């Protein structure tokens, strides 16, 4: 049986995963609109992944006898200065989620709620991988010249990239 405080925090995380899914779906739309097909595909996959993260929390709450509560979420940012600006914002979003997951894992450990602690380990690993992939995309920007087809190369790279592998 989860404590009410744990339930509240898991619900909060569930809604944060929704936020990430919406942010990435909107980013996918912006990329598509600007002709970045690879990046658009990458962010669409990222958005589906975030929905899957949300569903896992939804199932965990249900399976532990608690009704998940969906909150209202803010509309995501629609416009971006550049592809680089967009990737930087996505990386910042991942850093926020990593912090949240880590503090959630810490909280479950403090409560000696080992079942939730175990459940959260999957997210801890995901966040490590996602942070790494966004950082690697950002690093690529410093390797190419955006004025000479560099953005095209990055976009091609993103076409086959999956941030969760
Ligand atoms: Fe990108 O993160 Fe969900 O958990």
Automatic annotation (TrEMBL):
<dbReference type="InterPro" id="IPR001519">
    <property type="entry name" value="Ferritin"/>
</dbReference>
<dbReference type="GO" id="GO:0008198">
    <property type="term" value="F:ferrous iron binding"/>
</dbReference>
<dbReference type="GO" id="GO:0005829">
    <property type="term" value="C:cytosol"/>
</dbReference>
<dbReference type="GO" id="GO:0008199">
    <property type="term" value="F:ferric iron binding"/>
</dbReference>
<feature type="binding site">
    <location>
        <position position="50"/>
    </location>
    <ligand>
        <name>Fe cation</name>
    </ligand>
</feature>
<feature type="binding site">
    <location>
        <position position="94"/>
    </location>
    <ligand>
        <name>Fe cation</name>
    </ligand>
</feature>
<comment type="subunit">
    <text>Homooligomer of 24 subunits that assemble into a spherical protein shell (12 +/- 1 nM diameter) that can sequester at least 2000 iron atoms.</text>
</comment>
<dbReference type="InterPro" id="IPR012347">
    <property type="entry name" value="Ferritin-like"/>
</dbReference>
<keyword id="KW-0409">Iron storage</keyword>
<dbReference type="GO" id="GO:0042802">
    <property type="term" value="F:identical protein binding"/>
</dbReference>
<dbReference type="GO" id="GO:0004322">
    <property type="term" value="F:ferroxidase activity"/>
</dbReference>
<protein>
    <recommendedName>
        <fullName>Ferritin</fullName>
        <ecNumber>1.16.3.2</ecNumber>
    </recommendedName>
</protein>
<dbReference type="InterPro" id="IPR008331">
    <property type="entry name" value="Ferritin_DPS_dom"/>
</dbReference>
<dbReference type="InterPro" id="IPR009078">
    <property type="entry name" value="Ferritin-like_SF"/>
</dbReference>
<dbReference type="InterPro" id="IPR009040">
    <property type="entry name" value="Ferritin-like_diiron"/>
</dbReference>
<comment type="function">
    <text>Iron-storage protein.</text>
</comment>
<keyword id="KW-0963">Cytoplasm</keyword>
<comment type="similarity">
    <text>Belongs to the ferritin family. Prokaryotic subfamily.</text>
</comment>
<feature type="domain" description="Ferritin-like diiron">
    <location>
        <begin position="1"/>
        <end position="145"/>
    </location>
</feature>
<dbReference type="GO" id="GO:0006879">
    <property type="term" value="P:intracellular iron ion homeostasis"/>
</dbReference>
<dbReference type="InterPro" id="IPR041719">
    <property type="entry name" value="Ferritin_prok"/>
</dbReference>
<keyword id="KW-0408">Iron</keyword>
<feature type="binding site">
    <location>
        <position position="53"/>
    </location>
    <ligand>
        <name>Fe cation</name>
    </ligand>
</feature>
<dbReference type="Pfam" id="PF00210">
    <property type="entry name" value="Ferritin"/>
</dbReference>
<keyword id="KW-0479">Metal-binding</keyword>
<feature type="binding site">
    <location>
        <position position="17"/>
    </location>
    <ligand>
        <name>Fe cation</name>
    </ligand>
</feature>
<dbReference type="GO" id="GO:0006826">
    <property type="term" value="P:iron ion transport"/>
</dbReference>
<keyword id="KW-0560">Oxidoreductase</keyword>
<feature type="binding site">
    <location>
        <position position="127"/>
    </location>
    <ligand>
        <name>Fe cation</name>
    </ligand>
</feature>
